[in-house]
Each structure stands twice: as structure tokens, then as C-alpha cells.
Amino acid sequence: MKRRYEIAVIPGDGTGPEVIREGMKVLAAAADRFGFHLDAVHYDLGGERYLRTGETLPDSVLGELRRFRAIYLGAIGHPDVRPGILEKGILLRIRFELDQYINLRPVKLYPGVETPLRGKGPADIDFTVVRENTEDLYAGIGGFLKKGTPDEVAIQEMIYTRRGVERCVRYAYEYARARGGRRKLTFCGKTNVLTYAHDLWQRVFEEVGRDYPDVARDYAHVDAICMWMIKNPEWFDVIVTSNMFGDIITDLGAIIQGGMGIAAGGNLNPGGTSMFEPIGGSAPKYTGRNQINPLAAVCAGQMMLDFLGEREAAAAVERAVMRTVNGGIESLAAGRMGRGTDEVGDMVAGFVAEG
Ligand code: IPM
Ligand code: MN
Known about the structure:
Blueprint: E1 3-12, H1 16-34, E2 36-42, H2 47-53, H3 59-65, E3 70-75, H4 85-97, E4 102-108, E5 126-132, E6 142-145, E7 153-156, H5 162-179, E8 184-189, H6 197-209, E9 216-221, H7 222-231, E10 238-241, H8 243-256, E11 264-268, E12 274-278, H9 295-308, H10 311-328, H11 341-354
Parallel strand pairs: 1-2, 1-3, 3-12, 5-10, 8-9, 8-10
Antiparallel strand pairs: 4-5, 4-11, 6-7, 11-12
Helix pairs in contact: 1-9, 1-10, 1-11, 5-6, 7-8, 9-10, 10-11
The structure holds 3-isopropylmalic acid and manganese (II) ion.
């Protein structure tokens, strides 16, 4: 009997459907080559549906999404929809409701890919950020007082729970151990100012760390890490951080690994439904032009295969991506690849089929 996996596919907005189409091509090639089957169920969610029906993520759809092991997401974001509606209504709602408490962001520079960091190469840029994904300023606790008046007050609370911090930190230690790198975990925080929220983080980081004597502990303030990630990216192996800081430093990570053309992430609930996405967004300007780089979506697919337990297939997709970026395309930037979106997808799928 073939191994079978049911996945939900949300192509979403803008260039999302184009990159997901290529990602699915590559996943199909991997399934063929490694003898498993992917049953994909497509869901129409995003800005178009919202403008048509007023719905973001209906409860019934959310209920269906819970049944899958994994969700493959293209992009959410529409130029005609006010910022926040789709992000909160779809993306963040899925993260929260499905309790995807880890946002995993590998930052790895492949040979042949240009980084803006002078003098740094693939040996220097290879680390992973583990970002907490369900709490912090993202929890949406807050409100207005006297809105619209000169006395207006706006409050947005940074919420952290012992349980939420602990499960994230423990995941990061486990990850650092399993990754087989230098076994170094850096907590990125702001303990000199966030003397409550990050005091909790710091204590949990130390306490949980006692269970991992083989993993070296390190600390960096979030502002300082923005310098170190540029100046000495080779210092990092695994970084664990809170939600808002993780959002910021992972864009920095994305640009040093070659940009939005290649950067992918996983929203993980290790015991439930996880979601994988290219992190570049819907790129409205490139929609429908066959110019967007599908490799970030392909890399998200690779992470999904790994999560599903198809390690060999995931490794084959990574090798195929590495071949593609090292000579197969001219640049990772949209419109400058020297090939169409579909041709890049064909190329990666072809490499996967060859092994
Ligand atoms: C990300 C994105 C989201 C976030 C937005 C779109 C809500 O920037 O996945 O990093 O802030 O988490
Ligand atoms: Mn972000």
C-alpha cells in the first residue's frame, strides 16, 4: 500500500496560485519518485472571496482544515482590502485556531545565490529561527479609549504564558539537538526592557536548558542581533525568539539568504495541523505575468514533506532547488530569472525525477 497524505491547498491571492501550481508540480514529481501519494483538497480563501462574499475564513472551512495533517498556502493579501482584515481573518486565525505555536524559518544560503552580505558565503549563513507563533502582541488583546478624539488611547498588550513560552523553548532545544549542527541555541529577547515578558522567557530558557546539557545556551538582545546577523551570521545555529521580534528578524534572515524568491516557513503544530508557506506575500505587481519565483513555495513544500515524514523526498527537493539556483536561473528576483515561473517549476520537477 502506498503511503498517502491528505493536504489542504490554499493558493490564495496575487501570485499565490502561480507559485502553488509549480510547488504542486514538484510535490507530484517527488511523490512519483519516492512512492507515496498526496491527496490535495483545494480551498478558495483570500481577498477575492472576501470581496465577493464578505467571508474571510468561515467556521465550516476552519473545521475542515483541522482534519488535514498539513496545509500548503500560497499567499494572503489583496490591494483592494484594508490591511489587517485578511491577515487577521485568515492567516493569523489559522495559526491561532490550529494552535500552530512554532513558526520555523530556516535561513540557509545555497551556493550560487547572491547575498547582500559582502564576504559571506554558504558556510557562513546556515541557521534556523524558531519563532513563537500564537502569543505576544499578536494575541490581539487591547483596545481604544476615546477613539478619534485628541485624548485617544490605544493599547496593545504583549501577552506571554508560561505554557506558551515553555513549549516553544522546548521545541527549539529539541530542534537544536536534532539538527546536528553546532548545537547552540540563542535566545533573542530584550531582557533589559521587557522585564516581565522576557524575564519569563529568560527563566524558562534557563530552566528548560538544564534538560539539554548538550546544547550550548547563548543570548542576544533583539536590536543587537540585527547587527550580528549582518556582521557575523556564522555565529548562529538555532535562534529562539518571541512572536513580534521573530517576525522582524526573519525578514532580515530572508534577505541574507537571497530574498523572498527563496524564503519559506512552517507554522507548526507538531501534534496537529501544520501550515507551510513562502513568506514573500502576494506580490500583486507580478500577478499573472509568469515572472514570480516559485522556489520559495517549492521550499515550503520541501518543509511540508519533511514534516510528513518523507525525509528522502524532502532532501531530493532540496537538492533539486540547489541545482536550479546554481546555474539554472539568472537571478532569484521576480522578472529577472531569465525563465518563466512555469519553466522554473518544470526544471525543479525534472531534477527531482532524475533523483
Ligand atoms: C509573516 C507575516 C505575517 C506576520 C503577517 C502577514 C500577518 O509577516 O508570516 O511573517 O506578521 O506574522
Ligand atoms: Mn513577517
